[in-house]
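4.2 Preliminary Data

To establish feasibility before requesting continued support, the project team ran the inverse folding procedure on a target of 258 residues. The structure was first converted into the token representation described in Section 3, and no sequence information of any kind was made available to the design step. The complete token record follows.
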């Protein structure tokens, strides 16, 4: 699938500012960037490699008090949409060193609090079958309710309230999978199947010796998602971090098939 991505945003700051951006589609296996453009006016840009070597992050030094950003890209998604049930989970002692950090609890994913629940609910399952069962349980038991959570909502609150948005679904997915001793990480993506259109959060799970995309909301599949960034939880994949208070004036995110 080829996806056209268009992002436009305008933010106002009280002073000249440095922002940290993660919004460009990553140049990784499974997706080809046919075209892209990032316009940031008179901001000075410095790039660094993203977490786990996925994509790039941008430091933008904004000399004034307003940032006007436009990003567009044409991405060809080449990864297949295969089922995960047939994939094996690696024995704990065979997990690669660079993957091990995604077994641990993190700020928004207190996976250690879910060990007992996951053992009782899914303990008779293994590998990809267990991951699929966790995904299906989350999709069936949570309600997608825009505005029901905020940037401070953690996974325990999501589990108790049984509602949230994509970041909450992904946090719960990562937490439960980590509780099952299978590495899982948070992923920011674009997809034409996201409703309403916005930056979307899903999970990636270490199965069969590779990272596999899993969307517990049920909106998206691996073959219709353009990966932006990965990290331990939403804290690591935020599309923008600002050193100064940021006032949103305008923002639009669109992804459509072409």
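Position-by-position output of the design step:
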């Amino acid at each position: 699938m080829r996806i056209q991505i268009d992002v436009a945003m305008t933010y106002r700051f009280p002073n000249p500012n440095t922002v940290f951006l993660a919004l460009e589609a990553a140049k990784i296996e499974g997706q080809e960037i046919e075209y892209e453009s990032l316009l940031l006016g008179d901001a000075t840009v410095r790039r660094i490699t993203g977490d786990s070597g996925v994509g790039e992050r941008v430091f933008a030094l904004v000399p004034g008090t307003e940032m006007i950003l436009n990003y567009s890209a044409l991405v060809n998604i080449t990864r297949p949409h295969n089922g995960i049930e047939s994939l094996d989970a690696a024995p704990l002692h065979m997990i690669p060193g660079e993957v091990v950090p995604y077994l641990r609890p993190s700020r928004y994913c207190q996976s250690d609090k879910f060990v007992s629940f996951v053992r009782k609910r899914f303990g008779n399952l293994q590998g990809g079958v267990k991951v699929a069962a966790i995904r299906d349980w989350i999709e069936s038991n949570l309600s997608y309710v825009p505005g029901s959570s905020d940037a401070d909502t953690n996974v325990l609150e999501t589990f108790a309230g049984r509602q949230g948005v994509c970041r909450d679904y992904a946090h719960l997915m990562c937490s439960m999978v980590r509780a099952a001793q299978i590495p899982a990480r948070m992923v920011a993506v674009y997809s034409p199947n996201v409703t309403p259109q916005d930056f979307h959060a899903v999970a990636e799970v270490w199965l069969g010796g590779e990272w596999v995309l899993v969307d517990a909301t049920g909106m998206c599949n691996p073959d219709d998602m353009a990966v932006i960034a990965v990290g331990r939880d939403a804290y690591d994949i935020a599309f923008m971090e600002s050193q100064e208070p940021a006032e949103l004036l305008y923002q639009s995110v669109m992804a459509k098939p072409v």
